Amino acid sequence: MWSGLNILELLDKRDEIMLPKILKQDVRLRTLSFLTTEEMDELRLAIHGLQVLDIDNVHESYLPWLSWWFRVDTWDDAWTVAKKREVVKEGLVLYRYKGTVWAVKRALDLTGFNPTLTVWHQMNPQGAKGTFLVEVIQDKGGLTQKDYENVVTLVESNKQGSQHWQMTIKNKPSTGGIFSVSISKGRKRITSKNFPTNPTLIGGLYSAVTLKSRHRMTIRNKSNEI
C-alpha cells in the first residue's frame, strides 16, 4: 500500500495515515493524535541521524562509537566536536597505513602534539638501523602523565612492531623547556625521571629514561635549582 512512499514521507503524512478523516470527528482520537506528534518528530530526527557514515553531519553522540569502530587509538571526551569528527575520519586511513612513519606522525598531529619524525638514516650522526626519532612540540604547557601515555600509545600503535625509537619533547621556554626521552623495548611499565635545571634558562631541561609499555607510567620529579 505504501510502496511508493519512503518513511519520511509517511511521517509527514502521519495525520492522514494514523487518523483517517472520518475519525477526526472524535475529540478523543484527535487528542491522541496530537499527543503522538512529539514522539513522531523525534523518530524523524533519529532516522536522519542514522546516516552514521556521514561523519561531518552525523549527530555527535555517535562519534565515540565510530571512533571505536574505526579503530582510533586515543579518544578524549573533552575534545571539540570538530576535532572528534576529524579524528574519526582519519581513523581508517591510519589503520590502512599502520607500520609507517607517516602513520605515526599523522596520529600525533591529530591529537595536537605537532611532531617531527626523523628516521635513522636521516639523523646526524646516523642512528641505529631501523630506529627513528620523534620530536614533539607541546604548545599548551607541560606534559601531564596522560600526555606521556598518549604519545607512547600513539607511537606504539602505529609504528612497526620491531622498531625502536627515541623521543624529545619540547615546550615553550615559559612552560617547561625540553624533555629528552629514551624509549627502549619492554612490556611492564613506563618510568620517567625528571631533573629540572634553572627554569630561567630555556625554560628548563628534563631528561627521562622510559620503558615501552601500555600498562602503567610513573613520573618522578627531582628539583635541582641553580
- Number of domain units: 3
> Which term fits the overall shape?
elongated
Mean pLDDT over the full residue set: 69
| Rg from Cα | 27 Å
Give me the count of strands: 7
Structural class from helices and strands?
Answer: alpha/beta
Provide a quick synopsis of the model.
The chain is built from 8 helices and 7 strands.
Write structural notes for this entry.
With 226 residues, this protein is α/β, with parallel strands linked by helices. The protein has 3 domains: 7-49, no CATH class; 52-96; 99-221, no CATH class. The protein has 8 helices and 7 strands. The chain has helices spanning 7-12, 14-18, 27-35, 37-49, 63-69, 81-96, 101-110, 145-158, and strands spanning 115-119, 132-138, 165-171, 178-184, 190-194, 205-211, 217-221. Strands 1-2-3-4-6 form a 5-stranded mixed beta sheet, with helices on one face. It has a two-stranded parallel sheet with strand order 5-7. Helix 6 runs antiparallel to helix 7 (101-110). The protein is elongated. Mean pLDDT is 69; it is low at 1-8, 10-17, 174-179 and 184-226.
